[in-house]
Amino acid sequence: MGGKYVEKVVPSRNLSLLNKAKNHAEALALGAKFLVRPLRITYRYPIVKEIPDQGYRGLIVLDDNKCIGCSLCARICPASAMKMFQAGEKKLRPAVNYERCVFCGYCVDICPENALKHARTHDVVFESGESMLYIGEKFTLDPDTQILSGKVRIYRVRVDEKRGLIYEPIR
Amino acid sequence: MLDSFILFIKNIILWPPVFYLLIAPGLVTILISLLLLIWAERKIAGRIQMRYGPLEISPKIGGAIQLVADLTRYMLQEIIIPRTVDTLPYLIAPIAGFIISLLPVAAIPISPIYFPSPMTNSIIVALALTTLPPILNILAAWASNNKFSLIGGARESFLIAAYELIVILSAIGAMVIYGTSDFTEAVSLQKNLWGIILNPISAIAFYVAVLMATGRFPFEIAEAEAEIVMGAYTEYSGLLYGLSMGISYTRMFVYNVIFSLLFLGGWQPFFTIGGHIFISYVLIPATVVILKALIVSLTMVFTRAIYGRLRIDQALGGAWKFWFLVAIVGLIWGSALTYLQQVI
Ligand code: SF4
Ligand code: SF4
Questions:
Q1: Could you give the residue ranges of the DSSP H alpha helices within chain B?
Q2: Where does the chain cross the membrane (chain B) (predicted)?
Q3: Is A165 helix (H, G, I), strand (E, B) or coil?
Q4: Residues of chain A positioned with their CB less than 8 A from the CB of B307
Q5: Residue A31 is nearest to which of B48, B51, B52, comparing CB atoms?
Q6: How confident is the model at residue B329 (pLDDT cuts 50, 70, 90)?
Q7: Which of B50, B52, B302 is nearest residue A39 as measured by Cβ atoms?
Q8: Does the residue A107 lie in any domain?
Q9: B159: which of A58, A133, B43, B151 is 20 to 30 A away, CA to CA?
């Protein structure tokens, strides 16, 4: 079966001189409008932060008091990022390795005691492989509290019909 | 001893050739306006394309000194000279190109009585000098021994043939009206009515030809980044690259000084402050001319955010089939005006 030959030439629009001049003027006017009243869809990242809505799958935080050490989270983890560790006598606690985690959220879903939850942020930088392992105390700190304090302005994203994404300040 | 030395230095700096080439509208002014123009270009494009543009270096003043940071980086960067280039022309091309693109300043007066070199045909000399830098561009393309450079150089040489004629014809369209080829006289004749009102056709043709000559959008064909990396300057790095980037902006600024002298009334409105000869005959007219040139340049960098890049055949077709005719119509219009003035 041979393919069908398709002429891929766009026919010239043959605009008259007046129409061309009008189109140029329109383009320039549109540019001038945006120059005077810019509609920015980007935000100044390190100074301004975007906080996603509820249900965002960010970093994982463990509530140590709720956890019963059942190991379900470690078993469900498809990337083998969650592992159980001995924490004191007869006490198992999970730890997560962000080198492997794919942020699928299975561990949060399966936990019978709601001991795991997603933080609403993703913004972490690791300097070494060891620092990517969140174990013990480190796993129970909520990164949101660190980010929401400090001198950042928090924005929330909203979908607008005319402009696409809009960032609205919520603080 | 010290006093006489200071007087000596002052005399040297205020000697017109040195003052023109070094201070205004020469090196210092052009470097400052370069910083301003490139920053404005990025900022305008940013605003129109729904982003911020440069901001991080100095958030308080909108990132205005971003270009200083860029320049510092270029100066500290290693200049890599590829093994296959013709070293001498490769090194000469951007340096000489930058200097030569400044050269028309030697024939452009920015004040009625204080000019770089007294001559009666300064418009022709200035226009002749503006045609030199593209040759260095082609030299850089040839010496780089790289196919992107070669394509860029070939495109540039096609474009020269198209725009040079339009620039000169539309300048003649203005010269015919003034009946002189001297900038000083042409400006003094525009005391009441600027050239852009007398001959708008030539002014538009000149403007578009300058867009084409200095690689502004939509005629940024010779350095089309998405197609041929950086055109003739693909192989350059470090300070040489910085210089080669500056060439087109310098040319644009010089062309716009010519434009504002020919069509925008030069240093008109001209006024003097009694008792201050230097201020009233040098500083004020120079500021007026440079401000006009800067405003025209700003409208030129504004096009970057609006137009796409034309293909080379579209640009050449437009230049030869349309703008060339417009320039000739402007010339005829200018001649007709002069003829009518003589008859009536
Ligand atoms: S989010 Fe998914 S990959 Fe990450 S630890 Fe939980 S189950 Fe494993
Ligand atoms: S599933 Fe929940 S309760 Fe069970 S070990 Fe994991 S975190 Fe603890």
A1: 2-14, 16-18, 27-48, 66-76, 87-102, 122-130, 133-144, 147-178, 183-189, 195-198, 200-213, 225-228, 238-262, 277-278, 284-302, 312-318, 324-343
A2: 20-40, 90-111, 123-145, 157-181, 193-213, 253-271, 277-302, 322-340
A3: strand
A4: 27
A5: B48
A6: very high
A7: B50
A8: yes
A9: B43
Q: State the complex-level ipTM.
A: 0.71
Give the count of beta carbons closer than 10 Å to the beta carbon of residue A64: 13
- Asked if the Cβ–Cβ distance from A31 to B305 is below 8 Å, we say yes
Domain spans, chain B: 2-343
User: Interior CA angle at B143 toward B140 and B145, to 5°?
Assistant: 115
- pTM value is 0.77
Pairing mode, if any, of strands A82-86 and A92-97?
antiparallel
All residues at 6 or more sequence positions from B281 whose CB lies less than 8 Å from its CB, including other chains: B111, B112, B113, B114, B272
* Residue A10 covered by a domain: no
Chain A: closest CA distance from residue B252 (Å)? 20
d(CA B48, CA B175) in angstroms, rounded, equals 38
CATH number for the domain that contains residue A80:
3.30.70.3270
* Domain coverage including residue A104: 56-140
pLDDT at position B176: 87
Q: How close is the Cα of A89 to the center of ligand 1, in Å?
A: 26
Q: Is residue A76 domain-resident?
A: yes
Domain contains A93? yes
- Tell me the C-alpha distance between A128 and A80, whole Å: 19
Residue A148, judged by CB atoms within 10 A of its CB (0-12, 13-18, 19+), counts as: middle
Interface contact A41-B47, CB threshold 8 A:
no
Please work out whether the CB of residue A108 comes within 6 Å of at least one atom of ligand 2: no
Per-residue pLDDT tens digits for A38-62: 777 777 776 677 777 777 888 888 8
Among B16, B28, B254, CA closest to B126: B254
The number of domains in chain A is 1
Cα B291 from chain centroid (whole Å): 14
Contact B129, B103 (CB under 8 A): yes
pLDDT at A149: 64
| Residue B233 DSSP class | G
Please tell me the least confidently modeled range out of A149-163, B199-213, B248-262: A149-163
